[in-house]
Design a protein that fits this description.
single chain, 190 residues, mainly alpha, Hypothetical protein af1432, globular
Amino acid sequence: MRDILNYFFEIGILKRVKRSGWWVAGVKDPESVADHSFRAAVLAYIMADMEGANPEKACSICLFHDLAEARINDHHKISARYINKHDGEEKAFMEQLERLPKKTAAKIAKLYHDYDNDKIKESVIARDADLLECAIQAKEYMEIGHKEAGDWMKRIDLLLKTKTAKQLSKQLFRQSSHDWWQGLKKKARR
């Protein structure tokens, strides 16, 4: 139980690890990896259901995909020009799993490795959800004055593969991130 609790404490670090790519766009205090993973997992669940795939699997792939960043930190795309992030993530992730029961670790390792498998529908959806979450975050940052974040939206839009992700991305360009709460305010009494 000690090792399992240590695993939980370790992944809690992701609540403090910032998504470093946003610093390039001038965002002083970007969201954490945990923030990103949460919304990406919710997106994956809903998108998988809409695509006729397994929502639990797509969601789970997103939940476990970035856990290695608790050890190696978040590296933005520019850093990929200089370092091989994939090898470091793989090593860190597999070492993290050593704290868990072997059967559980094997299931999580499979989800982690499925992320890059184009032949698995849920994997394609999970990657689209991961990208789309970045585009949604970019929209939110743009609307509070970080116009450079718009570049993320455009680039991500070109990478999406599923019909649902493409439709959501298209709609994202058309609406405000504040539309969800319009009309929800309680009317004042006279």
